[in-house]
Write a structure and sequence with these properties.
12 strands; single chain; seven-stranded antiparallel β-sheet; five-stranded mixed β-sheet
């Protein structure tokens, strides 16, 4: 199965701004997610996995989707699901290739922290953190990303406000 990322509007079947009920319906083929919260400090979240790919769906105080984060299956685990961004599998393609293509498309890539790369405007966040045994580049970073976050267009704006 291919799980298509369409930042800043959707990650697979989950669309930014969808209601909690709409997200539950969209996730139904993936099984029953765990519900976390809401708590006094955090809005509700849904967590689960599909074919080994972990996910968290984040909601705002009005129970509207703000972001979806997906994780690679992990060391030694296999998945037939590909998480695709512009036809590249986020968890197997070289991270540097994905970032170069985003820059070529005119996106701003904030790689100040190479373990946690942000693409504001299209609201993508990539992580290259893991303690697992994976192929690494010359800087010791995993060659491929280990998680990706897709969010609504202004999700990272607060970080770049003057």
């Amino acid at each position: 199965m291919d799980l298509l990322l369409a930042p800043p509007t959707a990650a697979g079947p989950v669309h930014m701004g969808s209601s909690y009920a709409e997200v539950l319906t969209a996730l139904r083929p993936w099984g029953e997610p765990r519900v976390i919260g809401p708590t006094s400090r955090r809005a509700r979240r849904l967590m689960g996995d599909f074919d080994g790919v972990g996910y968290t769906v984040f909601f705002d105080a009005e129970d509207r989707t703000t972001a979806v984060e997906l994780w690679w299956p992990g060391e030694g685990r296999q998945s037939t699901t590909r998480v695709l961004l512009d036809e590249h599998d986020v968890f197997t393609a070289p991270a540097d290739t994905l970032l170069a293509e985003l820059r070529e498309r005119g996106c701003t890539v904030d790689a100040e922290n190479p373990e946690n790369v942000l693409v504001p405007g299209v609201s993508l966040g990539f992580t290259r953190q893991t303690s697992q045994e994976v192929p690494r580049d010359g800087q010791g970073l995993p060659v491929s990303f280990t998680s990706v976050l897709v969010a609504g267009k202004s999700y990272y704006d607060f970080l770049y406000a003057q």
